[in-house]
Amino acid sequence: MKTIQHYLSVPYQQTVTLEDCTDGTPCYVARVTELPGCESHGTTPDEALANLEDAKRLYIESMIEDGIEPPVRRKVVPTA
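RE: above sequence
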């Protein structure tokens, strides 16, 4: 299995959406498409993405500790 550094360097697809937080206030939620459930939030898109880096590290570390090889980025095929 590859190292945590390898998986952290994979250019995973990330999305940021504006959503309502649990308290009803707007917040930005960042997600890693290839890592289901790997998400974080922030008051700005940049903050959400910065927080996502921590979440991604913990997610990948947990997979490796459990003996599960993290996925690599899916190829994106353009559509016409």
